[in-house]
Write a structure and sequence with these properties.
493 residues; alpha+beta; TIM Barrel; five-stranded parallel β-sheet; 16 helices; 17% strand; elongated; nicotinamide phosphoribosyltransferase activity; cytokine; transferase
Length: 493
C-alpha cells in the first residue's frame, strides 16, 4: 500500500471506534501519556527515546481524513461489527473543520535522549473539545513506538559493554562506533521493522548492512548516509568453489578487494584449519601485504562463540604474531581482525570480551555482528511500554485520573497533567497532577493540529544519545538506584 493510500481511520484496534460512545457525557478533553514502566529486577534501567518523528511524518502529518477514507472505514466497520457503530459524523467534522488534519497536540522528549524508566516520554491531548475521542484513538499507532525505543535501548546497552572493555584494554574508545554491525535485516518481520530497527541502531553505531534503516535515516532524519559496511563473503560465495578449493575462494576475494577492508567467513568446513593452513600459511604473504586501511576481517560463524573466537585468535597469533598496547594487552597486526556474528547478544558479547581480557587480549582485535538479538528478540514487555489516560475535563472542569490494580501495583498509572524536569539534585523526574513549572518542562511540543513542529536530524539525535558515564559504581547498576544517565560526566566524542 502506497503511503498516500494509507487509511488512518483503519489504523487502530477496532474496538476503539466504539469509545466515543463510552466516555462520560459532556467530556471535552482526554489527556494521555506514554512511558516505559519501571520494573524491579529489569535488565534495563534507562531507555533511548527514538522513532516518534518517523510515525508523525509518515502517518499523522497533514490531511489524513478524506471523504473517501471515511466511506471506506464506514463500510469496513459495518462489516466487522455487523452493526452501525462507526462515528461517521465525528470524522466528517474533522474533515470539514480541520481539512482532515488531526486536532491533537503531542509533547515529547527530544529524540535520542536517554531517560530513566518510569518517566513520561510523550503526552497526547485533543486541542478541540469536540474531538476528545481522538486522543486514545491514536494509541494503537503511537504505542508501536515500543519497537524503535527498545532497539535503540538494546543497541546502547551493547555500546556500554563494548565501551567498558575497549577502554579497559586499549585506554581509549577509538573505533567504538563501528564495533557492533547490524546483521538483522533478514531476521525481522517486515521491511518497516527493518527500517525502524535499523535506524534505531544507527542512533548508537555507524556500522550496518540493513539498507532499510539507512533509507529511513535519509528520508525521515535528514542523514545522507548514516552507516557503513565493507565487502563481505557469505557461505555461498565460498562453498560454490567446492571443498577442495577453499583456498582459491579466499584468494579470489583478496584479489577482487585489494584495497579497503574485507570480511571473509571462514568456517564453511574447519575454521581452525582455515586460519592455520590457509590464512596463516598458504595465503600468509597475501594477508601481510595488506594494511590497516585494507585489513582482512576473518569471520567465524559456528560453535561456541567465546571458545571458538579465543582459539581462532590464538592460531592467528601463532601465525602472524602480535604486539602489546599501552595497557599491556595483546593486539594482532593491524592488517588482521576478527568479527564474531553468530550467537551474539548482550550476555555473550560481555562474556566473550571478558574471556579475551582474561587471556590478555585487547577488545581492539574484534568486531561483532548482531541480528535477531538486536532487532527481533524483543517485544513491548521488554521495556513495559504503556499508554494511559491521566487527565480529563468534563464541562471544562479538570480531573486527575489513574488506574491502580489491586492485583499488580506495578501497573498503577500516573495522575494528572505531566511534565518532565531535572530536579535540584540533577535527576530526571516526572511531575504529576499538573504541578510542574512550564519553564522546567523538558517535553517539547512536536505535533499540533496536523503540523510537525520539530524536525530532528540524526546528527542531533546522536548527540543527545552520546552522553556517557565514565565510571559507574556497582551500586549504580542496581535497578532500585537512580539510572546511570543521571550522573553524566563524559562524552563519547
Amino acid at each position: 500500500m502506497a503511503a498516500q493510500d494509507f487509511n488512518f481511520l483503519l489504523a487502530t484496534d477496532s474496538y476503539k471506534i466504539t469509545h466515543y460512545k463510552q466516555y462520560p457525557p459532556s467530556v471535552n478533553k482526554i489527556y494521555s501519556y506514554f512511558e516505559c514502566r519501571r520494573k524491579k529486577g529489569s535488565q534495563f534501567s534507562e531507555v533511548v527515546f527514538f522513532g516518534l518523528q518517523y510515525l508523525l511524518k509518515k502517518y499523522l502529518t497533514g490531511p489524513v481524513v478524506t471523504e473517501e477514507k471515511i466511506q471506506e472505514a464506514k463500510l469496513f466497520y459495518q462489516m466487522h461489527f455487523r452493526q452501525t457503530v462507526f462515528d461517521e459524523e465525528g470524522w466528517r467534522k474533522v474533515l470539514e473543520k480541520y481539512d482532515g488534519r488531526l486536532p491533537i497536540r503531542i509533547k515529547a522528549v527530544p529524540e535520542g535522549r536517554v531517560i530513566p524508566r518510569g518517566n513520561v516520554l510523550f503526552t497526547v491531548e485533543n486541542t478541540d473539545p469536540d474531538f476528545f475521542w481522538l486522543t486514545n484513538y491514536i494509541e494503537t499507532m503511537l504505542v508501536q513506538m515500543w519497537y524503535p525505543i527498545t532497539v535503540a535501548t538494546i543497541s546502547r546497552e551493547f555500546k556500554k559493554i563494548l565501551a567498558k572493555h575497549l577502554r579497559a584494554t586499549s585506554g581509549n574508545l577509538e573505533g567504538l562506533d563501528f564495533k557492533l554491525h547490524d546483521f538483522g535485516y533478514r531476521g525481522v518481520s517486515s521491511q518497516e521493522s527493518a527500517a525502524l530497527g535499523g535506524a534505531a541502531h544507527l542512533v548508537n553505531f555507524c556500522s550496518t548492512d540493513t539498507v532499510a534503516g539507512l533509507l529511513m535515516a535519509q528520508h525521515y532524519y535528514s542523514c545522507p548516509m548514516a552507516g557503513f559496511s565493507i565487502p563481505a563473503a557469505e557461505h555461498s560465495t565460498i562453498i560454490s568453489w567446492g571443498r577442495s578449493r577453499e583456498k582459491e575462494a579466499f584468494e579470489r576475494i583478496l584479489d577482487q578487494f585489494s584495497s579497503g577492508p574485507v570480511s571473509v567467513v571462514s568456517d564453511s568446513y574447519d575454521i581452525f584449519k582455515a586460519c592455520k593452513q590457509i590464512w596463516g600459511d598458504k595465503l600468509k604473504e597475501r594477508v601481510m601485504e595488506r594494511s590497516q586501511d585494507s585489513c582482512l576481517v576473518i569471520r567465524p560463524d559456528s560453535g561456541d562463540p567465546a571458545e571458538t573466537l579465543i582459539e581462532v585468535i590464538k592460531i592467528l597469533e601463532q601465525c602472524f604474531g602480535c604486539s602489546v598496547n599501552s595497557m599491556g594487552y595483546k593486539v594482532l597486526p593491524s592488517y588482521l581482525r576478527i568479527i564474531q556474528g553468530d550467537g551474539i547478544d548482550l550476555r555473550s558479547v560481555d562474556e566473550i570480551l571478558q574471556k579475551l581480557t582474561d587471556e590478555g587480549w585487547s577488545a581492539e582485535n574484534v568486531f561483532f555482528g548482531c541480528g535477531s538479538a538486536l532487532l527481533q528478540k524483543l517485544n513491548r514487555d521488554t521495556l513495559n511500554c504503556a499508554f494511559k489516560c491521566s487527565y480529563v475535563e468534563t464541562n471544562g472542569k479538570g480531573m486527575d485520573v489513574y488506574k491502580q490494580p489491586v492485583t499488580d501495583p506495578s501497573k498503577g498509572s500516573k495522575r494528572g497533567r505531566l511534565s518532565l524536569r531535572r530536579n535540584s539534585d540533577g535527576f530526571l523526574e516526572t511531575v504529576e497532577r499538573g504541578a510542574g513549572k512550564p519553564e522546567e518542562d523538558l517535553l517539547v511540543t512536536v505535533f499540533e493540529n496536523g503540523v510537525l513542529l520539530q524536525d530532528y536530524t540524526l546528527e542531533e539525535i546522536r548527540k543527545n544519545a552520546r552522553l556517557w558515564e565514565e565510571e559507574v559504581s556497582p551500586a549504580q547498576h542496581n535497578q532500585d538506584q537512580e539510572p546511570l544517565d543521571q550522573h553524566i560526566i563524559n562524552g563519547l566524542h
